[in-house]
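Onboarding guide, step 5: your first structure request.
Type a short instruction followed by the sequence, for example:

Predict the 3D structure of this protein.
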Amino acid sequence: MENTVGRDRRVLIAGGGIGGLAAGAALANLGFRVTILEQAEDFKEVGAGVQIAPNGVRALGTLIGDAAHPMLQYMAQGACQALEDVVRLVDEVQAQPDDIPAAFSAYAEGRYRRTARVQFSARQLIEVCQVGGVMAEVRRSYFSQRSDEQKFESLAWLYSDRAGEKFQ
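The system replies with structure tokens like these:
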């Protein structure tokens, strides 16, 4: 059975990164006619994402991936957050197929806290990872006293959307 949420409406996606390609595929699966614009001649790593101010979001409709929230490398979450964006965006479009601007707003409202937490956690890791001398000794001592379970549990929030979930 073909999904017709998009009812043959057009979507223009600027950027053929993982977020753009995943969003294009997901929205095409919902029945949207998708065009992806990419300025690079071929698909390869070409640099970091850019941040676009709120006025850009109003003009473009919505942003996903690095355009919405460029990630620092310390949590290794750039592609993961782009894919989470796509899942959330598709969920919101399916929930409000007749009001795409409202779906985009709900998507943005639903994502900013999580992406901010990932970014904040990455910034904290900079302070932990890029130290020397006495602070490096303190770091080694602290982490050597934590069990593997404690280390895993400190990241459980990143890999689950269920509060208090434990790794098995």
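Each response can be followed by summary notes, for example: DSSP finds seven helices and two strands in the chain.
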